[in-house]
Design goal:
The protein has a single domain, classed as Metallo-dependent phosphatases (Purple Acid Phosphatase, chain A, domain 2, 4-Layer Sandwich), CATH 3.60.21. The longest helix is centred in the middle third of the chain and has 24 residues. The strands form three sheets. A six-stranded mixed beta sheet has the order 5-6-7-10-12-11, with helices on one face. A five-stranded mixed beta sheet has the order 4-3-2-1-13. Strands 8-9 form a two-stranded antiparallel ribbon. By secondary structure, it is of the alpha/beta class. The protein contains eight helices and 13 strands. It is globular, with a radius of gyration of 17 Å. The chain binds fe (ii) ion (FE2) (2 copies). The site of one fe (ii) ion has 8 residues, from loops. The site of one fe (ii) ion (FE2) has 8 residues, from loops. One of its GO terms (molecular function) is metal ion binding.
Length: 265
């Protein structure tokens, strides 16, 4: 089976002609499905973009949402509308809302949005303040002193769902593919060939998901876990362990890419 992976396409920045040639490029690979690791558009547009994409590629679109996908709205409202769209169009598969999917014998696909959860680096001392804190209703309405707790809570919720999904994998699982938006480790948080410092890590790493992945790998060292993520818009590979690898994808606003074509045996 063959899958095309893309991350952070930010379709709201993509001119129509560029979008059409990108879709044609995907079709030329004849994939069995598309993987998107978040930042598809913004909250008031993400459903429109997903529907348009599914109709154009006409293969399953497996995706998670990124922070930009919630802009101008609340997290719950966005997820509700996205889930409703997946009920209308079976080609759309929102992995955060799904149990593990067996792609081929023993190879499972899992996804969770994740969040920059302020658990890695030094949030209190960091001067970095993402637009998220103004653009997403759940964060913009919060008193500043509660922001860190809310971010940690969002990361924890993603991690707990991921942990349940991984625990539900059957005994014949030999490989797990995890799609998530945020790099789950500081070492996977690439920017121009370097990894995040204490200022950037709180908003660019989902430490709680990293904790779940590390503990799964320790309990099941023979099962290969490959994580695909984005958010930093810069690429890199971090090998956590022999059988736990994180691939972070690159992106440029206005010019969506095919990050990789992945073949599964
Ligand atoms: Fe992005
Ligand atoms: Fe992002």
């Amino acid at each position: 089976m063959k899958f095309v992976w893309t991350t952070d396409p930010h379709f709201d920045h993509v001119p129509a002609a560029v979008w059409q040639s990108w879709v044609a490029d995907i079709a030329s690979k004849s994939p069995d499905g598309l993987w998107i690791t978040g930042d598809i558009s913004e909250g008031d547009d993400v459903v429109v973009q997903l529907r348009r994409l599914a109709a154009a590629v006409d293969v399953p679109v497996y995706f998670v949402l990124g922070n930009h996908d919630f802009y101008h709205r609340s997290i719950a409202d966005t997820r509700r509308d996205v889930i409703a769209a997946t009920r209308d169009d079976q080609r759309l598969v929102y992995l955060t809302d799904c149990q593990p999917i067996e792609l081929t014998v023993g190879v499972f696909l899992i996804g969770e949005d994740g969040w920059g959860d302020a658990t890695v680096g030094d949030f209190d001392a960091s001067p970095i303040r993402l637009r998220d804190f103004d653009m997403i209703e759940d964060l913009s309405r919060l008193p500043k002193e509660h922001l860190k707790d809310q971010l940690a809570q969002l990361g924890r919720e993603s991690a707990e769902r991921l942990e349940d999904k991984m625990a539900s994998l059957p005994p014949h699982a030999r490989q797990v593919i995890v799609l998530t938006h945020l790099p789950p480790y500081r070492e996977a948080c690439w920017y121009e060939g370097r990894t995040a410092d204490d200022d950037w890590a709180p908003s660019f790493v989902c430490g709680e998901i990293g904790r779940v992945l590390t503990s799964y790998n320790q309990l099941h060292p023979s099962i290969r876990v490959e994580v695909f993520c984005g958010h930093t818009h810069h690429e890199g590979v971090y090998k956590v362990d022999e059988n736990l690898v994180v691939r972070t994808g690159s992106s440029t606003y206005g010019a969506p890419e095919i990050e990789a074509v992945i073949e599964l045996l």
